[in-house]
């Protein structure tokens, strides 16, 4: 949707201006379409916004429940509306992947990140030095020894002021 959309226009004369960030918006009532992502016309999924973004961009996520497996491979800032109102759940039907795989210096803040499926933990940092702040990370599993957060690559990830809640015994970080 063009930023300067005119409902009475009959033709596209090439003067359409499309939204291109650098601040993107996600809302449960949005649409995943090219040229969306503005505050008035938000995306519906966080991953679509992450894919549309560029290094240095920000993504603001409205309160709600989002069922996704995210791959953050750009240096972006992903901000939820607060861990008590913005919930990110693992998409069990999609795959056995983690809820979030980070391959960048992304900043993740203000989410409740929840997984209840015994498969591959919650967050993996493959590369980069992401900053993960002010989130609630909850893993509900009957599988002792399941991974919550995994660091696979080089870099210096920072976990600051997060609440990590385990609903089983035998938890460990690797």
Describe the structure.
The protein has one helix at residues 46-52; strands at 23-26, 58-61, 64-67, 70-72, 77-80, 86-89, 100-103, 107-109, 112-115, 123-127, 131-133, 136-139, 149-151, 158-160, 163-166. With 174 residues, it is mainly β. The strands form three sheets. A six-stranded parallel β-sheet has the order 1-2-5-8-11-14, covered by helices on one side. Helix 1 links the parallel strand 1 (23-26) and strand 2 (58-61). The longest helix is centred in the N-terminal third of the chain and has 7 residues, at 46-52. The N and C termini lie far apart (45 Å).
Structural class: mainly beta
Average pLDDT, all residues: 84
Read across the widest sheet, the strand sequence of neighbours is 1-2-5-8-11-14
Seen as an oligomer or otherwise, the chain set is single chain
Q: Classify the helix fraction into a percent range.
A: under 10%
How many helices? The count is 1
Shape: elongated
Q: What's the quick description here?
A:
This protein is mainly β. The chain has 1 helix and 15 strands; from the N terminus they run E-H-E-E-E-E-E-E-E-E-E-E-E-E-E-E.
Task: Please give a handful of descriptors for the protein shown.
174 residues, mainly beta, 5-stranded parallel beta sheet, 4% helix, 32% strand
List the helices and strands and how they pair.
Layout lengths: L22 E4 L19 H7 L5 E4 L2 E4 L2 E3 L4 E4 L5 E4 L10 E4 L3 E3 L2 E4 L7 E5 L3 E3 L2 E4 L9 E3 L6 E3 L2 E4 L8
Parallel strand pairs: 1-2, 2-5, 3-6, 4-7, 5-8, 6-9, 7-10, 8-11, 9-12, 10-13, 11-14, 12-15
């Amino acid at each position: 949707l063009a930023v300067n959309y005119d409902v009475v226009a009959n033709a596209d004369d090439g003067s359409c201006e499309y939204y291109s960030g650098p601040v993107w918006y996600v809302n449960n009532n949005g649409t995943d379409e090219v040229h969306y992502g503005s505050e008035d016309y938000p995306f519906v999924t966080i991953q679509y916004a992450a894919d549309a973004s560029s290094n240095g961009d920000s993504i603001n996520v409205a309160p709600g429940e989002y069922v996704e497996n995210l791959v953050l491979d750009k240096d972006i800032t992903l901000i939820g509306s607060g861990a008590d109102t913005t919930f990110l759940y693992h998409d069990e039907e999609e795959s056995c992947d983690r809820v979030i795989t980070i391959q960048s210096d992304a900043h993740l803040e203000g989410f409740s990140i929840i997984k209840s499926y015994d498969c591959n933990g919650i967050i993996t940092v493959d590369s980069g030095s992401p900053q993960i702040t002010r989130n609630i990370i909850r893993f509900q599993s009957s599988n002792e020894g399941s991974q919550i957060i995994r660091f696979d690559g080089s870099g210096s990830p920072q976990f600051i002021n997060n609440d990590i809640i385990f609903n089983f015994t035998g938890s460990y970080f690797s």
